[in-house]
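[09:14] KT: can someone run the structure on this one? pasting the chain below
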Amino acid sequence: MTSTTVTPPTPAVPRQPRTGIDTDRVAGLISQLLVELGEDPQREGLAETPKRVAAWWNDFLSPSSAPTATRFTESQLAGQLVVVSGMSIWSLCEHHMIPMNLQVAVGYLAEGEVVGLSKFGRVARHLAGRLQVQERYTRDVAEHLAGVIGTEDVAVTVRGVHLCMSMRGVRMEDARTTTVHKDGRFRTDPVLSQEFLTIAAGQWGAP
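[09:31] RB: done, structure tokens below
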């Protein structure tokens, strides 16, 4: 009989956003934008706006380092489904540079150990600090968590409210976009997959 050793996947290496920006330069560009929009960047109410906007961009595009895994041994656990839902984060659509609010739910199978719950929220937030699309974000969260947990048995579903659709274009305020990424047993076991989706859907509620 030939034995096969399965090596757990390593954490996906996310695309690294630029670390820090030239806030003075960005503030100058915001001032120019205000002028082009017919505003006076020196008037009361706008005098400090360029600096505030530049500071926000610097904060958003300079997230903290990727969180490390914290695992706790639970030797009696075998194949228990764990779903962490209700995580709400903000990111930016790279097509229009307009915010999107993403509700994230993650599922994995606990096998002999569990992962610290705060890590799921930290990963979701860390990967949100960039210009992107929801579809790629969903995949990135799943791949990163697979490395953190040490197994491909991971599923992620994200429900997004995109202001680029709600406040511009068709202006459909109730529109929601749902994406799902499944690997390992969540991809091959339809019953497990449906159980995860049913539990995750419970966080959505009414639009």
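[09:33] KT: thanks! Confidence is low (pLDDT under 50) at residues 1-8.
[09:34] RB: yep, looked fine to me
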